[in-house]
Write a structure and sequence with these properties.
230 residues, Tetracycline Repressor, domain 2, Arc Repressor Mutant, subunit A, homotetramer, 2 domains, 11 helices, mainly alpha, 0% strand, DNA-binding
Chain lengths: 230, 230, 230, 230
DNA sequence: AATGAATGAGTGTTCATTCAT
DNA sequence: TATGAATGAACACTCATTCAT
């Protein structure tokens, strides 16, 4: 009679079995949901509105999601996994650790720039998820953090950065990137994303670089003109 | 959907006229509201629950607040003003700019530590306020930021800190303090608030200090044992 | 988040505390519910309709009942307890065991006649209750059966009825009385309740009476003219 | 609310024309429906569940039934006709009227024992049918009753039973048989079907038999050991 | 000033039914 | 014939707000 809390927390049941169709429809509905959740918040967005925005019927939504919590969960998962999946390709082919770190920050900030509202959404409504799912979202964030952590460690190991509290430094980087979304009203108009990252590197990377590291950073800057090539 | 926006955005109507009684009752109700909003979120907390927690009737709440949005607004205002009002007394009598900056960070973090859930609340539900009131909350945050900004400027002006992008640095300080609440699950168990601030100073203050500034910081550390004197 | 299955199965929560008001409002709502459930069945009756029939708002119903199942449960309990409570007063002052048995059957049938639709309701929807509550309803029926059982036993103990399988005989009596409601279309127009009971006594009581018992029955009949004094 | 009542009340439209295929498919679907309706009730069973249980698609069901009411109607008809069709073969070759009556009761009870849940189903949801169809179901029950009536009449006509109110007695027989399903929780564990019928005959048949009738019953009992030969 | 019973618009969700394939 | 994805009206239930006392 009661809805069973079935299986693993990350699993979302669909009444439709064809995986390709499930992926398509879920994508279609999630795009609408992320848009509306971002604009109006989770609780003030109705299923009705999501259906209308996605151009489907109410009933269809319930063929692909178990309940509204499922939609929020997959929305946030989508956002969190975008970070995780889009940063690595941007680092491909880049060898130098300092360069990798700077490009990672740049990549993270630009990805967030494209998902600004959705990033704020994750901050606002992750807590609204069922506890077990909240943890899955946090794990996703953790894996993204690890990408930055690896960059920092490579810098230190290569002698480009002096030993620092990596854990803390990585969290400064994370907060710096997230701030582009969270405090956008404070940076908007003042900085382009490129300038924002350039300033961030000056404050959060440069001070920790060794001579070797600074040389690499200078070279990078010469090539990229401060990431302001938008 | 939204009720007529009457009068000035910050004004909250009360049917009761005696200002002392208004202040008392509102305080009583807001304490309950902040507690519940922090625990369960704004939308999942009901007026019934607030009334019960505050030990008053439902009707009474509507004698002191116009609607639920009023309660949220004054709850967030209460939180934001706590920062603004509690930092300055903690700086009183402290003269040295470097010391003032470090103590300001320390003060901000400990105040947030006492309002951890409420700080997260502000991040989550400021956007749920009517737009004009949202701006008032942001202004409150701005005024708090200015306190840090003044500390940074004094350091630079006194030659204790080399010239940096003040604006960016202050925001990084703000994010650092807020992160103690926002990412508490990541720091909890790893750092005490004192250790957290000490590490923050190492990463976000020390690199920008001049020789003079470093000497001051060393003196401070000798006296305070890294803020770990909890 | 989920509704707690609280306390004893027979308890129905009310948000209103004043017991007198609760009794009044519940009575008002239950009368409407029993009427509609009887006419249209449980599932096809909406809360909306109950509210309208009772002349109250939808919300009010949920101040006095937890959910629709609660309304069904108390409706059926009301019906089942009517039998249990109304038969004993009808037996008051009657001493002779045979007379008590006959009057008990007569009382049960007339009570059912006044609750014909509701009796059918109990047959139809007791199974729709949560299992623990279903058992409570059955217990109520059991207690009513016991009233008849006591009458039969007194007849046997007094030597007015020859030894029989009491348990089975009582169930024949029960089915006989219920049949007045369950098969009303088959008896309607053919028999008045009085005639129905008189025929029932002829078939289900008379054959088991001893000489002493038959004498008592004859005396009773002389006085009551076959229960046809409606 | 109700769909147009088209054509004769007993007619159920099918989009498929081949009668053999219709009979097969309907049987397949009805078996699933009766099972689920019996277990969970009519309203709480969905077409989806019936389709799954029957191993067919949802769409297929609508090729063989007009709507859900059709399925209920044919389900109940199936049950009611089982009684009607299975009793006569069980009486074949039995000549003596008293024996025929007893075997008829025994047959009816054992058939009901095999359809216990379905019998309860008929009691619960016949009223949920459209009125005209409800009458058809009642007619089916009537025809079954007539089988018993014929047995009683033969007993009386043959001088094996003294004159009684046949109509009432037959209904008491019917209720007795139905009670095996309706009050199964009261008899379960106490009696086997055989014992139940034996006790019923003692209470509902024996008292009305003449000397001749009693002799026949005694003979029958000697042969069958009280129907307890399960 | 204070109460809390009463209201009803609005929500998430279900499920009989349809129809393109 | 047979499928099952798609539909949307209808439902149970919630909760901010009102108002008689």
């Amino acid at each position: 009679m009661r809805k069973e809390e079935t299986g693993s927390p990350g699993h979302v049941e669909s009444l439709v079995t064809d995986p390709k169709r499930v992926a398509e429809r879920r994508g279609q509905i999630l795009r609408a949901a992320v848009k509306l959740f971002s604009e109006k918040g989770y609780y003030t967005t109705t299923i009705q509105q999501i259906a209308k925005e996605a151009g489907v019927s109410i009933g269809l939504i319930y063929q692909y999601f178990g309940d509204k919590d499922d939609i929020l969960f997959l929305s946030l998962k989508l956002v969190i996994e975008t970070y995780e999946h889009e940063i690595p390709p941007r680092l491909e082919g880049i060898e130098h650790p300092v360069e990798r770190l700077c490009v990672a920050l740049w990549a993270y900030c630009t990805i967030i720039d494209g998902l600004r509202e959705a990033t704020v959404l994750a901050y606002r409504f992750t807590k609204s998820l069922r506890a077990d799912r909240r943890d899955l979202i946090k794990e996703g964030e953790f894996r993204t953090n690890r990408l930055l952590e690896n960059c920092v460690r490579a810098c230190i190991d290569g002698g480009f950065m002096r030993p620092v509290n990596e854990y803390m430094l990585v969290y400064q980087y994370v907060m710096f990137c997230h701030a582009w979304a969270l405090k956008h009203w404070a940076f908007q108009g003042r900085y382009t994303p490129g300038q924002y990252v350039a300033e961030g590197i000056r404050i959060l990377v440069e001070p920790f670089l060794t001579k070797k590291g600074l040389a690499a950073l200078a070279a990078l800057r010469r090539r990229t003109a401060d990431f302001t090539h938008e």
